[in-house]
Amino acid sequence: MEQREHPDMSNTPVTVLGLGDMGTALARALLKAGFRTTVWNRTAAKAEALVPEGALHAATVAEAVEASPLVVVCLLDYDSVHGTLAPVAASLAGKAVANLTSGTPRQAREMAAWAADQGADYLDGGIMAVPPMIATPAAFVLYSGSREVFDTHRAALDALARSEYLGEDAALAPLHDIALLSGMYGMFAGILHAYALIRSEDIKAADFAPMLGGWLNAMAGAAAGFAEQIDSGDYAQGVVSNLAMQAAAYDHLLEAAEEQGVSPELLAPLGPLMARRVADGHGHEDLSGLVELLRTRP
Ligand SMILES: NC(=O)c1ccc[n+]([C@@H]2O[C@H](COP(=O)([O-])OP(=O)(O)OC[C@H]3O[C@@H](n4cnc5c(N)ncnc54)[C@H](OP(=O)(O)O)[C@@H]3O)[C@@H](O)[C@H]2O)c1
């Protein structure tokens, strides 16, 4: 494998723009790891609060960018990133910008192009953690964009969380981030509906929780099986529970919700998709074939 030479940046100064809950956790992790850390935040008090921990408080964005070769950005959204960086665009030339602000794949590509126009090297990042998890083994950050920035500043990035590089296209990190969160929220929707059903009788959610957790863990294995069917386009391979049967059983879920006085709104959308796929002649296949109905672009 090709080995690239990178300057030793294990102690490089780092700037953090944005000290909300997440930016503060990132800055603290860098300080703890011994990086010379300059911080800036729109509301200055949050930057001042980190000074006793060793942070250098830059009064302006320009000063903050000037202070370090690596600029980590963690603001509310891409509009605030653009609004913060555009006035100091001229000072970004030659800088490495790691933008860990959540956004969409399109926003990441546009930001990468804008940064390139300013002469900056751009790395996009998706943080797969909540602030207390930062700098613990449970946290990871997905990166995409400049491989050069990722390799050169790996020590600082690794001080935040486990770092995973996905490729040169800046859109890859937010795409994976959002796909993971979509899976998570789908699961949360099911969990909330399940608890609403259980609470419709005199049963404590806590008494049901171990059974639900165990069941979800067992079902998580379906992700790998579905992936094989989706990649091959053969939704009839290895079918254990065919879609026609599942569609019929799903009607019971909706019926039971109504009987128990639980709104079906979190669960309802899957039903018509199953019925459509069965009506299209795919009843003998697996549930995974529903992705064919979800994808509106080839
Ligand atoms: N918290 C999490 O669990 C979590 C997990 C993964 C990813 N993230 C992502 O990390 C990013 C930051 O999240 P957070 O939890 O730190 O949010 P937060 O606590 O609400 O902080 C938001 C930050 O953005 C700044 N900001 C907002 N609008 C601005 C503007 N127009 N110009 C300049 N600065 C502006 C705020 O400055 P002020 O202090 O002046 O208001 C603050 O520093 C978000 O993109 C979020 O989706 C968060």
TrEMBL record:
Q: Which domain of life is it from?
A: Bacteria
One Pfam family, short name = NAD_binding_2
* Keyword Oxidoreductase among UniProt keywords: yes
Any one GO molecular function term: oxidoreductase activity
From the UniProt record, list the coiled-coil ranges.
Answer: none
The UniProt keywords, alphabetically, are: Oxidoreductase
Reported EC number(s) for this entry are 1.1.-.-
Q: Which residues form the NADPH-dependent reductive aminase-like C-terminal domain?
A: 169-295
Q: Where is the 6-phosphogluconate dehydrogenase NADP-binding domain?
A: 14-162
Keyword Oxidoreductase attached: yes
Which InterPro entries does the UniProt record give? Answer: 6PGD_dom2, 6PGDH_NADP-bd, HIBADH-related, HIBADH-related_NP60_sf, NAD(P)-bd_dom_sf, RedAm-like_C
The entry assigns this protein to a family as follows: Belongs to the HIBADH-related family.
Q: What is this protein called?
A: NAD(P)-dependent oxidoreductase
Species whose genome carries this gene: Streptomyces milbemycinicus
